[in-house]
Amino acid sequence: MQECVLCEEYITNPLCPECIGAQIKTWLLEAKPELIDLLDLETSKLSQHLFNKNFCISCKKDMDVCSYCYTEHVLEWLEDKLSKELLSDFVKFFHYDFHRKGYFEKARVKGLI
Ligand SMILES: [Zn+2]
Ligand SMILES: [Zn+2]
Question: How far is CA 31 from its chain centroid?
Answer without folding.
Answer: 16
